[in-house]
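Exercise 7. Given the encoded structure of a 147-residue chain, write a plausible sequence.
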């Protein structure tokens, strides 16, 4: 069985659908994960989706992905702008990580302009709503082998 790609959703993303829909749209996290699952299956690949509101749990999931996954799509939510621990976890593993944001963080408050994750990610996709995740997954479906 080939290794999956991990989809990691950070804090407050479990609230998608009802959370600030004018910014994040109306799709729920389940809607997004379902579409990503279908997309991976079309490429004969699989994904595993996780959501956590806890920084340490995200660190543990990233460490786990290092041996169990071929890549990570991560939307670290607000931890993007604060978490050296998540950046260090990504630096410690040897698989590609794509950073995702649904909103265009550069059109928003200045405190959202800095990302601890961007320097350790292979790339960043932001501003395309739920489609940001699909674009990021496409990159990993093309880039990563099934290990
Ligand atoms: C976000 C942007 C972050 O600034 C914010 O804290 C989030 C969501 C996005 O997907 O646009 O929780 O990562």
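Solution.
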């Amino acid at each position: 069985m080939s290794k999956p790609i991990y989809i990691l959703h950070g804090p407050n993303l479990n609230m998608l659908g009802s959370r600030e829909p004018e910014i994040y749209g109306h799709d729920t996290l389940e809607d997004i994960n379902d579409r990503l699952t279908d997309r991976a299956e079309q490429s004969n690949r699989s994904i595993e989706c996780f959501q956590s509101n806890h920084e340490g749990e995200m660190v543990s999931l990233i460490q786990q992905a290092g041996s169990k996954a071929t890549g990570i799509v991560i939307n670290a939510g607000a931890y993007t702008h604060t978490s050296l621990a998540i950046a260090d976890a990504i630096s410690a593993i040897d698989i590609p990580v794509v950073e995702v944001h649904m909103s265009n963080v550069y059109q928003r408050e200045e405190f959202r302009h800095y990302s601890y994750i961007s320097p350790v990610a292979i790339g960043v996709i932001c501003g395309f709503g739920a489609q940001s995740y699909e674009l990021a997954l496409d990159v990993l479906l093309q880039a990563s082998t099934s290990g």
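Remark. Residues 12, 75, 77-78, 80, 101-103, 105, 112 surround DQA (CB under 6 Å). Students should compare their own answers with the one above.
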